[in-house]
Design goal:
Length: 394
């Protein structure tokens, strides 16, 4: 079976996840692939464990806890996402096969252009997200070099480590472990998110294709321009085309439902964690010295988290807008010149489309621009509370 749509939308995240052993295993070398995957997961889970141990040790010191907590939330989110991704590989296979079904195949150059345009758009947005995350990791790695004083060495991240930074090669080993783990985390973070975002945008592209098909419904004038048999044939063709559009729309809804059912917990965990992460990063930015490498890295990390949050809400909003626009396009078709079966189908379809397609995190929170604004407001509220508590301690 051809994988044109899968390759078009999921080529980059598939390559990244395949490189780290998280994608579907190959037909051969399955055991080695599994061992490699477990090693990658070990780097992530051990990082969370070391972070948790450190927070327990410094519990009560708001400054130290806040400095370590934002990374704990991020790493926990990565572990949660990747683990659920691995658990639901059967649904991933179903979705990949779904994307290559005949009903989703482009029928002309216009349909191909819709698919290419939206796949390119989501790829560029995810690439910006990836570059921002890698830049943040690089800046974190530079902090021990740039911000060190009097030759004192320290690790990039405040986590418990079985080795210390004072002596070599313990410092080099600890530094390499932290940077390798955080870079792997960044790539996995973006790759899993890119799979979800690309599938949502694939649904958007299919809705645009349906709108194009609806616009192909021909008028059936009552004047003598058409012979009776030509009118009857055009009416039948229009009715058949509209039936295909409705079937196509139902398949898009089914596809989006499976995507939501597969990844809704990931997105809900991410949105919930983003509130804590953003307010803690804001707190750290208000504490660290402006212009320092740590300040710049925190600022860049804030931009990364906001871009990720915006991507989810933007893609979900685009899906909802197109589902609402499809209903308008159907109503603007020359339905009044069609047969009674066509009109009945249109009535049923428009009644169904009164409820637009909403992609929800946790089957509860719709991904939309108002959700993005609401999360920012909540983050600021929690930041204000934490900032006030810290000022009281001082």
């Amino acid at each position: 079976m051809s994988e044109k749509n899968v390759a078009l939308f999921l080529n980059r995240p598939r390559n990244i996840l395949g490189f780290f052993g998280i994608w579907l295993p190959p037909a051969s070398f399955t055991l080695l692939y599994t061992i490699y995957m477990l090693f990658i997961l070990l780097t992530q889970y051990s990082f969370v464990l070391f972070e948790f141990i450190y927070i327990v040790e410094v519990w009560g010191d708001l400054d130290a806890v806040s400095e370590a907590s934002f990374l704990l939330f991020t790493q926990a989110s990565v572990c949660f996402k990747v683990t659920r991704f691995l658990i639901h590989k059967d649904k991933l296979v179903m979705l990949l096969e779904f994307m290559e079904e005949e009903v989703f195949q482009p029928q002309n150059k216009i349909h191909e252009r819709y698919l290419i345009t939206l796949s390119t758009r989501v790829k560029r947005l995810c690439l910006f997200f990836l570059m921002s995350a890698c830049t943040t990791c690089t800046l974190w790695g530079m902090v021990p070099v740039v911000d060190s004083t009097a030759g004192e060495r320290f690790f990039p991240f405040l986590i418990w480590m079985p080795v210390g930074p004072a002596n070599s090669p313990q410092f080099e080993l600890g530094y390499f472990y932290q940077m390798a783990a955080i870079y792997i985390s960044a790539f996995l973070f973006i790759a899993v998110d890119s799979v979800v975002l690309s599938m949502i945008m694939f649904g958007c592209a299919e809705l645009e294709i349906i709108m194009n098909k609806v616009e192909q419904i021909q008028k059936v004038p009552l004047s003598g321009k058409l012979k009776q048999d030509e009118r009857d044939q055009r009416i039948r063709d229009n009715c058949e085309l509209f039936k295909k559009c409705i079937k196509h729309h139902q398949e898009v809804i089914r596809f989006i439902d499976i995507v939501e059912d597969t990844f809704h917990a990931n997105i809900f965990f991410q949105l919930s964690g983003s509130v804590a992460i953003i307010c803690i990063i804001g707190l750290r930015i208000s504490i660290v010295e402006p212009g320092s490498m740590q300040f710049i890295s925190m600022l860049n990390y804030m931009m990364t988290m906001l871009s990720q949050l915006f991507l989810y809400c933007w893609c979900g909003n685009e899906l909802t807008i197109r589902s609402e626009l499809l209903r308008d396009v159907m109503y603007l078709s020359p339905w009044y010149e069609q047969s009674n079966p066509f009109r009945r189908l249109l009535w049923v379809a428009m009644e169904r489309m009164k409820k637009p397609i909403l992609f929800k995190a946790g089957h509860y929170i719709p991904l939309s621009r108002p959700t993005f604004v609401s999360i920012l407001r909540s983050s600021y509220s929690y930041f204000a509370v934490l900032n006030q508590a810290q000022n009281k301690e001082k």
